[in-house]
């Protein structure tokens, strides 16, 4: 109860909680699209690829203000996607290898840059490594406002282009025939996913951000076949995981926020996989059992079913 | 070069070569991102091993770490088998969760001991010469011994199971039909990836492990169609990237692993641009050649159509080509030059005449069409 009160009174906890919820909402929404587009690991690639962009933006502006760094991250992430599609469209190298190359090389380059920046005199660069590992506890009000602003724009764009996104996700061929700029819309969706990644990066860090793009959508997919419901569920799952992570880590000593958020969303995924109606594993186990079990009432019923499934007049003795 | 500089480069070269071998198969089997997952989750194995053994130097840690790697793959495949999620999502769900558990255990229990998350991702090759072991009377850096053993193990595994690996990679169906267990080969490969990742990430960090496992094999994939050569090229490219990266890092005073990873990218881009057959430049040249050959063929067909007709005087001239085929004067000129060089046409003042050779060629083209 004491902890609950702290949410309203403690400045740090409130910021962390709000930040985590915004992070969960934005990445959850985009996660639904990422999962449907078979791009779950895009979050992983992009969160790594963003690092050199952050450092270069810092080198250009010379200050650690959130907005320029986020824009730098966004540009680097998009550049990474561009290279990725160049590699897969011009050579026989497949998506997974292209992603791996971009992820490791961009991040390695970012690391080299970061180590150089850190050796420079001055203290402005302090805290740049937050983009590597995330540091939720250091979230301040201006961070939350920036995150909410950028995330809000992303969500607004999804609402605006809802019909178009739905179409290119499920039937790109048809979208092309009715004259939609499919290529452009693809780029827009990818940009929005990169935005979601970039928004969360400084809270949960590179590795854990990939979970926030892969997991909420995968969980939401189990509950519904409708895109609208799935996106909303995905956003809610993300936000719940964010809130749970922030609250649990603030109520115990020495518990890092990012990993707890990831474990929370993992639990949601497991529950969804097991218990979701229709698609849940337990439900299908029950169904299989009831089909396999011999019916005690009508012993001849099964024989009848098998017999009638036979093509008539072919195998009749 | 001082001894420690040589030692660092030897460790890096061994890591590069050891990573290239399983890396080739990951790239060919389209599971390159498994290296990303495994190189992160081995941390969990190391943490648990450390808690049970109480010693960060214990060689048994490698068993725990490799176990965590194989566990990652097993869990991903279990998820995949439920058919509720796709492969990319399965990987993306498992490894962050395991990595999170590792990070929580670290912050809970070893706040003061140095298992740093930074060190996990970035590694520090510069420390390689300080950590030494005595083998048969001589003192060697631990990295040289560990990576040497892993490299040799990988080489032996590939040599012994070469045929099986090759078949399972290029024709899994046939491999299964012939009685090789695809699962056995798959898990063997994953064990190799895990062991290599554990041995390597101690020195170079997980990012360079990923870079060395994917980028050199991907570059080699553009250079050759033969598996054995692809393995050799990958190892050479990896070693070249590691050593050049080391000197760049020294010159610019930056993180060694970061510079090496950057160099793997530069070598990859070089292969992407300049690979003899599959490179982008070769592709552009090939496309241009094809266009040029087609233009010459158009010219021959045009001349053949009007040869001996009443309008031959006006149609078969250099000047007319710009109207007829919609070519720029320069392009028309170049095409005629090309046709002349091949002995297909003669240019007499402005009039174009087919040679015998050109006539045969044009007839062939017309017959085909």
How does this structure look, described?
The complex is a heterodimer of chains A (317) and B (369). Chain A is mainly α and 317 residues long. Chain A has a single domain, classed as ABC transporter involved in vitamin B12 uptake, BtuC (Orthogonal Bundle). The radius of gyration of chain A is 24 Å and the shape is globular. Chain A starts with a helix and ends in an 8-residue tail after the last helix. Chain B is mainly alpha-helical and 369 residues long. Classes of the chains: A mainly alpha (317), B mainly alpha (369). The interface between A and B is large, with 64 and 62 residues.
The overall pLDDT of chain A, averaged over residues, is 84
Strand order of the largest sheet of chain B: 1-2
> H/E series of chain A, N to C?
HHHHHHHHHHHHHHH
CATH topology group of chain A: ABC transporter involved in vitamin B12 uptake, BtuC
Question: Which sheet architecture does the biggest sheet of chain A show?
Answer: none
- According to CATH, the homologous superfamily of the largest domain in chain B is ABC transporter involved in vitamin B12 uptake, BtuC
| Tally of helical segments of chain A | 15
CATH architecture assignment of the largest domain in chain B: Orthogonal Bundle
């Amino acid at each position: 109860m004491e902890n609950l009160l702290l949410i309203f009174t403690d400045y740090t906890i409130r910021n962390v909680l709000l930040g985590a919820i915004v992070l969960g909402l934005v990445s959850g929404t985009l996660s639904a699209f990422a999962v449907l587009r078979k791009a779950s690991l895009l979050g992983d690639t992009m969160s790594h690829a963003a690092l050199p962009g952050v450092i270069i933006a810092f080198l250009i502006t010379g200050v650690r203000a959130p907005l320029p760094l986020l824009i730098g991250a966004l540009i680097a992430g998009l550049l990474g996607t561009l290279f990725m599609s160049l590699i897969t469209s011009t050579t026989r190298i497949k998506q997974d290898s292209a992603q791996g190359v971009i992820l490791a090389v961009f991040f390695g380059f970012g690391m080299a840059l970061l180590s150089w920046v850190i050796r420079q005199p001055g203290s402005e660069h302090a805290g740049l490594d937050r983009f590597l590992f995330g540091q939720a506890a250091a979230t301040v009000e201006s961070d939350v406002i920036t995150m909410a602003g950028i995330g809000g724009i992303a969500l607004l764009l999804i609402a605006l282009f809802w019909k178009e996104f739905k179409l290119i996700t499920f039937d790109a061929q048809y979208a092309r025939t009715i004259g939609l700029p499919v290529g452009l819309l693809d780029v827009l969706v990818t940009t929005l996913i990169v935005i979601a990644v970039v928004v969360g990066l400084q809270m949960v860090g590179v590795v854990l951000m990939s979970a926030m793009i892969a997991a909420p959508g995968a969980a939401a997919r189990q509950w519904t076949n409708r895109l609208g419901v799935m996106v909303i569920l995905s956003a809610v799952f993300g936000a719940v995981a964010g809130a749970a992570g922030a609250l649990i880590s603030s109520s115990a000593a020495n518990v890092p926020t990012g990993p707890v958020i990831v474990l929370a969303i993992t639990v949601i995924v497991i529950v969804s996989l097991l218990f979701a109606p229709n698609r849940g594993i337990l439900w299908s186990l029950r169904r299989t059992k009831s089909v396999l079990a011999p019916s005690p009432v009508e012993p001849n019923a099964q024989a009848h079913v098998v017999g009638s499934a036979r093509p008539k007049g072919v195998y009749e003795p | 070069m001082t001894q420690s500089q040589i030692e660092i480069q030897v460790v890096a070269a061994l890591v590069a070569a050891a990573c290239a071998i399983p890396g080739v198969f990951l790239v060919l089997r389209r599971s390159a991102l498994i290296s990303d997952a495994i190189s992160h989750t081995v941390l969990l194995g190391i943490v648990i091993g450390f808690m049970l053994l109480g010693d960060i130097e214990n060689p048994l840690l490698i068993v725990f770490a490799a176990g965590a790697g194989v566990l990652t793959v097993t869990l991903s495949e279990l998820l995949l088998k439920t058919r509720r999620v796709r492969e990319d999502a399965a990987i993306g769900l498992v490894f962050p969760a395991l990595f999170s558990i590792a990070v929580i255990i670290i912050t809970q229990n070893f706040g003061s001991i140095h298992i740093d998350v930074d060190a996990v991702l970035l590694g520090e090759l510069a420390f390689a010469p300080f950590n030494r072991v005595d083998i048969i009377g001589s003192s060697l850096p631990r990295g040289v011994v560990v990576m040497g053993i892993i490299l040799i193990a990988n080489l032996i595994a590939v040599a012994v199971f070469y045929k099986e690996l090759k078949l399972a990679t290029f024709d899994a169906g046939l491999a299964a039909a012939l009685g090789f267990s695809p699962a056995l080969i798959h898990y063997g490969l994953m064990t190799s990836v895990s062991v290599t990742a554990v041995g390597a990430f101690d020195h170079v960090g997980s990012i360079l492990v990923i870079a060395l496992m994917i980028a050199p094999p991907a570059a080699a994939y553009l250079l050759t169609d033969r598996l054995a050569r692809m393995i050799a090229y990958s190892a050479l490219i990896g070693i070249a990237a590691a050593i050049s990266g080391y000197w760049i890092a020294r010159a610019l005073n930056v993180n060694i692993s970061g510079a090496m990873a950057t160099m793997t990218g530069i070598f990859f881009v070089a292969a992407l641009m300049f690979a003899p057959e599959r490179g982008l430049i070769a592709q552009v040249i090939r496309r241009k050649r094809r266009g040029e050959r087609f233009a010459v063929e158009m010219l021959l067909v045009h001349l053949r159509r009007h040869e001996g007709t009443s309008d031959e005087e006006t149609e078969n001239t250099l000047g007319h080509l710009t109207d007829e085929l919609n070519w720029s004067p320069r392009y028309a000129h170049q095409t005629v030059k090309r046709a002349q060089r091949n002995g297909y046409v003669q240019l007499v003042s402005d009039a174009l005449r087919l040679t015998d050779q050109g006539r045969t060629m044009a007839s062939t083209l017309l017959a085909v069409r």
